[in-house]
Amino acid sequence: MTGESEKSWILMATARSPTNIAVIKYWGKRDEELILPVNDSISVTLDPDHLSATTTVAVSPSFEQDRMWLNGKEISLSGGRYQNCLREIRKRARDVEDEKKGIRIQKDDWNNLHVHIASYNNFPTAAGLASSAAGFACLVFALAKLMNVKEEYGELSSIARQGSGSACRSIYGGFVKWAMGNNPDGSDSIAIQLAEETHWNDLFIVIAVVSSKQKETSSTSGMRESVQTSALLKYRAETVVPSRVLKIEEAIRDHDFASFARITCADSNQFHAICLDTTPPIFYMNDTSHRIISLVERWNQSEGTLQVAYTFDAGPNAVMIAPNRQAAALLLQRLLFYFPPPQDTDLTSYILGDKSILQEAGLQSVEGIEALAPPPESKDKVPRKKFAGDISYFICTRIGSGPKLLADENQALIDPVNGLPK
Amino acid sequence: MTGESEKSWILMATARSPTNIAVIKYWGKRDEELILPVNDSISVTLDPDHLSATTTVAVSPSFEQDRMWLNGKEISLSGGRYQNCLREIRKRARDVEDEKKGIRIQKDDWNNLHVHIASYNNFPTAAGLASSAAGFACLVFALAKLMNVKEEYGELSSIARQGSGSACRSIYGGFVKWAMGNNPDGSDSIAIQLAEETHWNDLFIVIAVVSSKQKETSSTSGMRESVQTSALLKYRAETVVPSRVLKIEEAIRDHDFASFARITCADSNQFHAICLDTTPPIFYMNDTSHRIISLVERWNQSEGTLQVAYTFDAGPNAVMIAPNRQAAALLLQRLLFYFPPPQDTDLTSYILGDKSILQEAGLQSVEGIEALAPPPESKDKVPRKKFAGDISYFICTRIGSGPKLLADENQALIDPVNGLPK
């Protein structure tokens, strides 16, 4: 290892990785240590412009230990999940040479070099939007770039998996399958890209971040309890999911929105059914989640075909997938009719992400929302009660691309001089 | 047929029948017409003093058609469910003689005689407390008495079943099993008494009637949709339930409260899981139901043994079963801490049924409730938020006896002179 001055140099890599939302759910591990699932899962990668993690990894002979800062706050790296990722990437590290900076690191040097990691989510970490998926995918991707790891994406996904199961699916854009694999060592439990984001880029996604004061069961302990106590989980994993996986792969291939939506909704509901079948039961959805489902189901039913799909992860937030912008605009009209922004909330802080959809929905102002007519399908069926305050905000987004290296050093989260978060 | 004056006589019978709460749930029919279930179910009969239907059936040659009044309001008897019960009982009718009144009805006369039926529930019909179970059991029982039907209770249960499935279990007191049977004609799909109410009469039951504005899916259409669309229902019915039935029968036999409670909670949760696995999903429990479950689960967990069991039917109301009055008093303290009566509600209209339990709970006044300390297990775990108004009232009751004939004519709901509801 050589550098301008033995102690002063810092080498960095910065990457941005998307989050993803499963349409066939991952719930249950067959191996807790290696994070090997009981069934395949399939996800849609979300646009990193709206939901992603950015991570800078830096190495320097002056660093005395591995350290990490998440959203500006130092966190411990002692957990097995971080250690797994660091160990597996270090194992595959190669010679690195930065001619401009005059830095040369040899393969074996990596074992004696420490890293500083700074990561930042462009969306609230606590909102239950799979921040760990984006985070671990980004960590692994950035470390791999820094350490000149040449392994294929499939292998990187298998390393990210050991940080957080669903992180393996964030290694690709578009539509991604996490194949559960068969090998006891987990080497074939990897993510595979089913289709790029451009394959079906009409899809439009609306996320409702539901206000919740309830403390939720973490997905790690929740799925452990489900595996141990649910009488239905094994049947779901072995019998129901395999056929759904085949069918939704076909639906994605054929742009068959009706099938895609039908399976997506059914699988989200079945995942929550398994949670309810757990002892003690786990409730991730609340009354607001139920109201959103009812709103979508009534609309679907009145039209006779599926207008939008919904899916819920381990929390009350709804992720709704519309076949195109037009349907998304109609969806937003319905959502904003029932869940208008609370008083004194302006629209730009209530609708995040791709705000241009508001124009298509004819909703450029709070007054426009107040003037919304009730959805035609609501007639005589439900009291047209409104629920202002039950949703914190909406994020409008679309299907997105996989991890990317950010070459511009200005985007780095670590100061290239002192090696600490900017 | 003879009487004092051919047109003027009226003969009546009045009965009272309990409602019941399933601990192994009935959800799904294999035959919609005959009401044959996809699995056995097991229930506890509730004390008719607190939850029952009273029904008077009257016959007179002056009656021009079959008519029925429910809670004072005339309702149509044209539905297949009422017709099934009337037809099956008439088929089994025998000679009747009332010497005092000088009335003689011969077996074949019953086909030409019309009945008037008046029924009354001593609890709110709309509260989702299995009013139809008590009602159809009572109708069948009273008609059988009036028409001198000699068939055994098992056969009566099979007739009540054709009115409302769970009604067959209200033909007995104590612990009752509805055996699904095998015969296509339903003749062996009958209720069986597992144990009398005296077998385990320490049990104490607290029902929380949850305020709900949401319109609920009827259980008839709900279970039809589950049978048609849930990917898990068949597995539950064929694989999970049979072993649970065996185990809970053992638990009842042995007064093994821990097993009884564990299976009761798990089966309630699994029934609601199947509802959630239905397309479109059915939500019977709401946030208040979830809070009650969490309260009980936290308590059970902190004690290390099951203190009480909970079970929910097709609605948000919680039925909680405590092993004895002492545990029920501790349960009430917890429930009333989180769900105090709304302002200006007095305790006697908030706690119905066996109010003597309030004394054991040290809660004879609203002030006593306000002074309640938080349950010890709540410490540092959840915000001690209170939810006044989320529960309409509680009913305190116990395990009860089966249908009974009320010999006192003063208890009849029909005027013996004009044949109309009093």
Summarize the structure in words.
Two copies of one chain form a homodimer. Chain A starts with 10 loop residues before the first strand and ends in a 17-residue tail after the last strand. In chain A, strand 7 (67-70) and strand 8 form a beta hairpin. With 422 residues, chain A is of the alpha+beta class. Chain A has eleven helices and 19 strands. Chain A folds into two domains: 11-197, Ribosomal Protein S5, domain 2; 204-398, Alpha-Beta Plaits. The mean pLDDT of chain A is 93. A six-stranded mixed β-sheet of chain A has the order 8-7-11-6-1-19. A five-stranded mixed β-sheet of chain A has the order 15-16-14-18-17. Chain A binds chain B through residues 213, 215, 229, 231-232, 235-236, 239-240, 262, 265-266, 269-270, 272-274, 276-281, 283, 286-287, 290, 293-294, 297, 300-301, 382-383, 385, and chain B through 213, 215, 229, 231-232, 235-236, 239-240, 262, 265-266, 269-270, 272-274, 276-281, 283, 286-287, 290, 293, 297, 300-301, 382-383, 385.
Keyphrases for this structure?
globular, homodimer, Alpha-Beta Plaits, alpha+beta, Ribosomal Protein S5, domain 2, 6-stranded mixed β-sheet, 19 strands, 422 residues, lipid biosynthesis (chains A, B), 5-stranded mixed β-sheet
